[in-house]
Amino acid sequence: MLRGDLLEICMDTAFLVIGLTSCAIAFLRHRSGVRIFLWIGIWSAAYGLLHLLEVRAVELAFPLWLRATTPYVITVIEYLLVVVAACAWFELTVGTMRRVVLWLLVAGAITAILGIGSFVIAGDKRFMGLNNLVAAGFLSLLLINVSSKKLFEKYLRLPSRGFLVLGTVVFTLEALCVNLMPPLFGLRAPILFDHLGFLVLLVAFGYSGLKMVLTNELRLLEIQAELEVARQIQTSILPTDVPELRGLRISATYRPMASVAGDFYEFLTVDREHAGFLIADVCGHGVPAALIASMLKVAARSVATCADHPGQFLAALNRVLAEPLRGQLVSAAYLWVNMETRQALYSAAGHPPLLRWNHGLERIESNGLLFGVLTEAEYPVRQLPLCAGDRLLLYTDGVTEPENKAGQAFGDEKLQGVLAQNGAVDPANLSRRIMSEIQAWQCAAEAQDDMTLIVIDVV
Fold first, then answer.
1. What are the residues whose beta carbons fall under 8 Å from the beta carbon of 173, sequence distance 6 or more?
2. For position 413, what pLDDT does the model report?
3. pLDDT for 278
4. What is the mean pLDDT of residues 435-442?
């Protein structure tokens, strides 16, 4: 008996191994685009297991308690094969065809529930005819879709259709022969014929899925290359070094969440005693935010004539950006420092407050509207005396808003603690310690926002 079933056992085991390997690949890749390999894997493994359980020699090898469950396992697989095949087909479709396949999938699932329930309760397979009808509908839809070039290009996510057409046609012809030979000629097609037809269809689906995934991977690589160029361009528009001003020590830190960011900072240096510090944060992330952040460079230079008056500077900047923003919002803060008089002027547009540390933390707020709300807006100005030992912090909300696993924000309180513990540390080292504390607070979680920090010490 075993010698007679050896070829069948080997082929069924091969389908089982192919299926499990495909599922493993899908889990290792762990991306939405490779779900088709999961369904193809389940499809192949279920098909192999179904026919393996129908081999008499295999059944007799099971212990009695396990042998009693074999009919139930076979019935479950017979009903669910159509559902799994529809899931694999669903991953390749788009548009209206995707919805049609979804309805077919639902019909197959309902039929499977009814059929399995009927077998468990009554021991019959009265719904198998309906299940075969759903399978025939699925195969007909597949054949129509791949046979028409127009339908293929409209409803499938594949770059080419040749191999999928071949696999579908071969499997359809095989299915017709297997089902028509007994009533017409009184002959039963060998099981090997059935296996070869399924193998061709399975390989066609796998090849099509692989082509789709490779196309998506190439597209992602192109996007990543373009993002890298965009990152280099964006980095080039940021200041390469900090200004050297009499009586000040300055440090700037910029950490984007992704390749490109919506944070921006700029120094408007007049001489060794006068300079402006601009920091801005575009609402949102990614390429759109980065494009707007790049606009800020040109806009800030175009209104630099009023750099010594923060209120006028921000109002002019808002007017320049009003039309290009097109509904996007930007927060900004601007600090003008005059070391000749040891005075500073500060104004902001919906931005986190300027922090001043000198044996205690002082929050300095002077906010107007965010850029992009109104074309004409007024920005109040605060005048600050600059005293020896003052430490000023301009930052974006990415510095204070990162959350730990408990959902607690880093916040001003943690920031104040870092400042208190590092009063004698120079601005560059302070910035590094703040970033280290934020990273530790997030407990290896991904960055939740872009982070920009400017530290200014008055000496």
1. 197
2. 78
3. 94
4. 84
